Amino acid sequence: MLIKKIKLKNFRNYKELNLDLKKGINVLYGDNAQGKTNIIESIYIAAIGKSFRTNKDNELIKFGEKFSEIDIDLSKIDRDCNIKVELQEKKDIYLNGIKLKKLSEILGNLNIVIFTPEHINILKNGPSYRRRFIDIMIGQLRPNYIYLLNNYNKILEQRNNYLKQIKFEKKEEKTIEIWDENLVEYGHKIFLYRNEFFEKLKNKINKIHFDITENKEEIKLVYFSDCNNKENFSKILVQNRKNDILKGFTNKGIHRDDFMIYINNVLVNIYGSQGQHRTAILSLKKAELEVVKEEIGEYPVLLLDDFMSELDEKRTNRFLENINDIQVIITSTNKINNEKININSNNIIKGSINN
User: Which of 8, 51, 151, 297 is deepest in the core (most CB within 10 A)?
Assistant: First the structure.
């Protein structure tokens, strides 16, 4: 998969941008607050349909302007493709000139794997960050997964509302079984997707981590869920019903799933060093890259935002030399030099390319 050209109009700090990209390593370098991450963000929006930095689309429009536009030409293994995102009072997305009816229809047309400084904290932060990681990966590859997840969340919200009605309005407790049945049905289907992809990640990540750490560390990924068995999940909901009513929300379910990473049998998020956190997440992202490639038959585009700040020079070069055969877009405060690989560099200054 290859992004050939990015055109931006009134996006963030860009009045207008025309950027040609190449296969291999593409570096966007310059001082902080010049607009490098804005380009990464525009690619992410074209791939996922929304930003990873804000939930407010009006923040994406250049100050003083009334509209914004992202236009990306890309080449896939079987076809060329154009994605256009128009932001005004509402967001419209076009695929090859045809307006999409639903946001989810954009998924899978431009496959990406993204690494940002915030990803370092996936293990340190709460489970919601880790669930978001797996949801984005699966959502790009299996559109039905997003449908199931949205339905589950709607049922969960309805159940939580009824729990409050039981507590404060003395509604019939037995009626909650209607929502329980649906939670079990959708929850187990979501579990099957997640478990499938966790198994794929497990099969990739250990060798990747061995290579990054020069065979010094063994990594293990462990997935936890209440929904691995329909009958058990149903019993768990019944057993926790009184507690759910008391608290006014559902304490068990697919929305509480989590995963942990161990290095040499030590839990990384509690006992791991900062360096181990970084290499663990890097291994996880590289494994994600390989899983996506296995699924779609070609590598996705790899986005590395402020990548250099999280790794020393030796590990940076070792990583880049191992991914030189795919398209990588990197933001950095410094120009990257490596005699072993060809690097396409673009200097970003105040929302413009200066080469």
Answer: 8
